[in-house]
Amino acid sequence: MALEHALLVALSERPASGLELTRRFERSLGFFWHATHQQIYRVLGRMVDDGWVTVEVVAQEGRPDKKVHTPSDLGRAALEAWLAEPLPMETFRSELAVKLRGASYGDRARLASHLETTRAEHVARLAAYELMEREQFPDPAGLDEAARDQWLVLRGGIGLEHFWIDWITDYLQETS
Amino acid sequence: MALEHALLVALSERPASGLELTRRFERSLGFFWHATHQQIYRVLGRMVDDGWVTVEVVAQEGRPDKKVHTPSDLGRAALEAWLAEPLPMETFRSELAVKLRGASYGDRARLASHLETTRAEHVARLAAYELMEREQFPDPAGLDEAARDQWLVLRGGIGLEHFWIDWITDYLQETS
DNA sequence: AACAGCATGTAACGTGTTACATGATTAC
DNA sequence: GTAATCATGTAACACGTTACATGCTGTT
């Protein structure tokens, strides 16, 4: 029961259609949340039924109509209530960790080569995030509240990529 | 389709019953994987059906019998095949990130106080992991292959806790 | 005419979570 | 005798993933 709230945050920042939300999730909130369009459409439908968002059909030029969703008073209240709840202790789930730990039951050299690939992907993501930081937040001191929160979450994404890269690098050094 | 493989790694290290596996997951692999006993029993049952593990009923003194599971040749082959597959790009899912980003749509002071609690929990987990490292791996240079992998994954857990603590600290400083 | 993109959706399936159930033993 | 621990399990539900379906517009 959290995708609802993630969508409410995104729609509070700016009303959007299902597909726009999907793309926005891939980019900005995507460092820490991922959802397919099918999931988003399903949850969005439920939120409309529950009166958390209102829908407006917007005609576009040269494109199909889109359904733009906006949080209602009820939705804003639900978001506020959720934000006030204590944070659950989160446990990440990493297939990589399982493979590192199980390395001696398979082909260690082959795993190492896959790890090189994964590290390169994280290096690329880190570079993309750092570019986003420079372009979208050139002057952190001058940001308003909501933008500063976005910036701080982006910094979290950067920190997480550093963690991955450092860990894989450490592992490859120790096992080489 | 990955809990199967995580269980195979754990059972390769040492055969175990469902409940023993659940507890082991909470401790050692738990930094990067979590599973309830219901999930583990279900998957274990499927693995028995598929011939990936064999079961031996072991009588105990003053306790109920337990079913000890051991990987079969088929299971070992399945694990090896899985380990040889490329790693999927992992995307973590963090409720904390969503709340940080949504802070301006709720009670910021209240969120900050929850964040203090969460940070304290991560500090405690970090201390527990560091204690485990000192006690279980006092001499990293002298470890065999499997134990070194366990140590390196524990170091990953330590790195992840550092990430959380640093991020939350950074956020609280910037928004205070 | 074929293909890619926009936009929304259905259906089937697999995984994860929550609540509850059973029965035995040990500790207070 | 009440509660806690060990050990295994069932059932119902929520959530996530994959594949497929529709129809329209713009490009090659």
Automatic annotation (TrEMBL), chains A, B:
Ranges of residues in domain Transcription regulator PadR N-terminal: 7-80
Domain Transcription regulator PadR C-terminal: 93-173
Descriptive protein name: PadR family transcriptional regulator
Membrane-spanning parts: none
Top-level taxon of the source organism: Bacteria
